[in-house]
């Protein structure tokens, strides 16, 4: 969802066979369909609600990471997946929404008093909620009409918020677990590498703008 | 443990009907126990005879499947399914429990001797995890007080400290880049808490010896405290005069106290403790139920804490 503006970049480097974008959505929704099916048929272990809630959140983070990987893949390995980035980014949003709905409806039973108390008092819930709020305008403007209306530059600026969302998502993950188990730290490290790459590149690139804009 | 003089046998200890009607299976199990004793490790669950207890709750039991597949036992990994998948590597036979410190009769008990000399009871207890879920588990064990009386603590002994086996080669979760906890796992109780009749040393569940993932061969069960106080696979019990260190308290002192009494009014800093999800109840559409003070055991234990500020001493 973020990075360079228009999705019209001429494909360079490795030419991958193009698949219809709808296929990205279909494949992307397989985990959600499987999780709901497995949950209803009692295949998610002893604590199915918690399993579903965590798995949906994890998929949201994975798709968010995938959108952040598109630019480095193009710049470093000349693998161009720009065409699919919007779909992947929207999948991250849809999974975040399903994760949130699971928390609100199945976990908290729509107990608004408990939910509001959680949002105010629990940093990991506050951060998780803020992360979702950040993703909303990005999802709403993930269409060509919005890019035209906003102009490429303003749109790109807005979509830089995805970096904040990625940091929020891993913080939310780290804060929910006890002690320092490896899994959230691995995801945090991946996000750190993907964001660090951009930071380093922006610092290195400025003095000698050798490359033409893609 | 199975052979008793007739006068010792309580009516409630008489072989349950389902066991009686399945005596072929039961005998196969007993033979398995004898065999297991002869083998270097006892992987097979063996049946245990246990008397009923007035301390048992009549709430619906959490299924054996859930009790034995959804565990926190970080020596085998941080995933809930890690212990069931990986704890088989723990060799639980032979097993000794060293009892030392401020006692008149320090000893190193062989597990078989502990079990043989104890009147086993079935105790159906609620178990409330600090993470906000709960189970109802039919433990088999004996009051910790029985063991304590046997070793005759000195007047100076004020606390009891417990230690889990330290066996990195048998416990794959200990061997990580960032250890999740400092090993070995340690826990502790005040002596009066340890002497409370509810405090149990469990050697079995669902009428059989403990599966490894549940803390075989012997573990602590303190039903009015959060589950992490129930230290598993105990190898050492020490009597001391100062409050002993406890693993989760060392890891995050602001989040896990020494007492760790179940208390719906005192939240974990990162989540509420007011409600809980009962495992196996409602599946995906589980309803939260209110958490009870001292996990519903206030009548038996509240007096232990009179005058204490449980907000500070959480």
Summarize this, please?
By secondary structure, chain A is mainly α.
Largest interface: A-B, 32 and 33 residues
Q: Compute the gyration radius of chain A: what is it?
A: 18 Å
* Largest pleated sheet of chain A: none
Question: Which sheet architecture does the biggest sheet of chain B show?
Answer: 7 strands, mixed
Distance between the termini of chain A: 17 Å
Please estimate the helix content of chain A: over 70%
Q: If you had to describe this structure to a student in words, what would you say it looks like?
A:
The complex is a heterodimer of chains A (214) and B (314). By secondary structure, chain A is mostly helical. Chain A has helices at 21-40, 48-77, 82-107, 112-121, 123-140, 144-150, 152-159, 161-176, 182-205. Chain A has 9 helices and no strands. In chain A, helix 1 (21-40) runs antiparallel to helix 2. The two termini of chain A are 17 Å apart. With 314 residues, chain B is of the alpha+beta class. Chain B has 9 helices and 12 strands. The radius of gyration of chain B is 19 Å and the shape is globular. Classes of the chains: A mainly alpha (214), B alpha+beta (314). The A-B interface holds A 39-40, 42, 44-50, 52, 106, 108-109, 111, 114, 117-118, 121-124, 175-183, 185 and B 65-66, 69-70, 74, 78, 80-81, 131, 133, 176-178, 180-181, 248, 251-252, 267, 270-272, 274-275, 277, 279-280, 283-288.
């Amino acid at each position: 969802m973020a990075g360079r503006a228009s999705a019209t970049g001429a494909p360079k480097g490795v030419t991958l066979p193009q698949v219809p974008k709808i296929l990205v959505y279909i494949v992307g929704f397989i985990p959600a369909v499987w999780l709901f099916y497995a949950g209803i048929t009692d295949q998610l272990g002893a604590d199915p609600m918690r399993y579903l809630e965590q798995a949906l959140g994890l998929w949201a983070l994975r798709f968010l990471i995938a959108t952040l990987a598109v630019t480095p893949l193009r710049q470093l390995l000349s693998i161009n997946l720009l065409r699919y980035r919007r779909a992947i980014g929207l999948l991250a949003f849809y999974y975040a929404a399903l994760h949130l709905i699971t928390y609100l409806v199945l976990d908290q039973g729509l107990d608004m008093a408990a939910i509001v108390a959680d949002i105010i008092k629990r940093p990991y819930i506050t951060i998780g909620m803020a992360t979702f709020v950040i993703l909303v305008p990005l999802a709403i403007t993930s269409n060509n009409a919005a890019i035209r209306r906003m102009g490429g530059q303003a749109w790109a600026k807005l979509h830089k918020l995805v970096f904040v969302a990625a940091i929020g998502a891993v913080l939310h993950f780290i804060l929910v677990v006890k002690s320092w188990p490896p899994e959230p730290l691995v995801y945090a490290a991946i996000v750190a590498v993907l964001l660090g790459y951009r930071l380093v590149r922006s610092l290195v690139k400025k003095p000698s703008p050798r490359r033409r804009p893609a | 443990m199975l052979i008793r003089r007739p006068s010792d046998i309580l009516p409630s200890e008489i072989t349950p009907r389902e066991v009686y009607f399945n005596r072929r299976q039961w005998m196969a199990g007993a033979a398995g126990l004898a065999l297991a004793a002869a083998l270097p490790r006892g992987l097979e669950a063996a049946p245990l005879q246990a008397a009923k207890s007035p301390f048992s709750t009549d709430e619906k039991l959490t299924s054996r499947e859930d009790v034995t597949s959804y565990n926190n036992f970080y020596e085998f990994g941080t995933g809930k399914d890690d212990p069931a998948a990986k704890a088989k590597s723990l060799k639980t036979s032979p097993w000794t429990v060293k009892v030392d410190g401020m006692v008149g009769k320090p000893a190193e008990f062989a597990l078989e001797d502990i079990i043989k000399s104890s009147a086993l009871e079935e105790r159906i207890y609620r178990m409330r995890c600090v993470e906000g879920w709960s189970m109802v588990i039919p433990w088999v064990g004996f009051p910790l007080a029985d063991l304590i009386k046997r070793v005759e603590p000195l007047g100076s002994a004020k606390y009891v400290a417990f230690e889990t086996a330290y066996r990195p080669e048998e416990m794959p979760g200990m061997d990580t880049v960032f250890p999740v906890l400092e090993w070995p796992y340690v826990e502790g109780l005040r002596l009066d808490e340890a002497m409370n009749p509810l405090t149990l040393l469990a050697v079995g569940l669902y009428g059989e010896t403990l599966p490894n993932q549940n803390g075989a061969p012997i573990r602590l069960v303190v039903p009015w405290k959060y589950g992490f106080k129930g230290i598993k696979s105990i190898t050492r019990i020490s009597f001391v005069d100062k409050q002993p260190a406890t693993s989760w308290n060392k890891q995050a002192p602001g989040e896990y106290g020494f007492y760790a009494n179940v208390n719906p009014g005192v939240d974990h800093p990162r989540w509420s403790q007011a409600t809980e999800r009962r495992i196996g109840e409602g599946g995906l559409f589980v309803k939260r139920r209110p958490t009870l003070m001292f996990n519903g055991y206030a009548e038996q234990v509240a007096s232990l804490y009179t005058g204490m500020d449980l907000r500070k001493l959480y």
